[in-house]
Write a structure and sequence with these properties.
By secondary structure, the protein is mostly helical. The chain contains 4 helices and no strands.
């Protein structure tokens, strides 16, 4: 059990370093919120690797204008989540907290979709095709990763 945790932590650390390097190399590590996949942008940052310098400049300009709004929403979500947890712990009614958190999540998703649409609009049709192929292959790779982890947990690896 402890060996699995060490392996998993090592894997996540290595993956994190690789992702950070990819973000730095592609030049798109600009203002996405911290956290997992669900907290960042909707598009994988690796798409920046297929962009031309002028397209990246447009992306940086978009993030400069939209990034602050997203960060503000992220901070509001964090505060609302903390209030929900506090009310849960003391036994207060959480109906209003849940509604506020749900509303903020909806606002954040709407802003992320708008930003992603603007980002995709900077791509050429050929780049969109490349991005679609990349996403398909990335999803297949993630599925293989999950299957491998399931086999490992079940002790079925050879």
């Amino acid at each position: 059990m402890k060996e699995q945790q060490v392996i998993r932590k090592g894997y996540h650390f290595g993956f994190g370093i690789g992702l950070a390097l990819a973000l730095l190399v592609t030049g798109v590590a600009y203002g996405h919120e911290h956290g997992g996949h669900g907290h960042g942008g909707l598009l994988p940052p690796q798409i920046g690797a297929i962009m031309q310098p002028e397209q990246r400049q447009k992306l940086h300009a978009l993030m400069a204008t939209k990034g602050a709004a997203l960060m503000g929403l992220h901070q509001q979500v964090h505060a609302a989540r903390e209030k929900l947890v506090d009310d849960l712990i003391v036994g207060n009614d959480t109906t209003a907290d849940q509604a506020a958190l749900q509303q903020l999540h909806s606002q954040m998703l709407a802003e992320k979709v708008k930003l992603a649409q603007q980002q995709v609009a900077t791509l050429t049709p050929e780049q969109r095709s490349q991005a679609a192929k990349f996403l398909s292959q990335l999803r297949a790779l993630h599925e293989q990763e999950h299957q491998l982890m399931d086999q490992f947990k079940a002790g079925q690896l050879e």
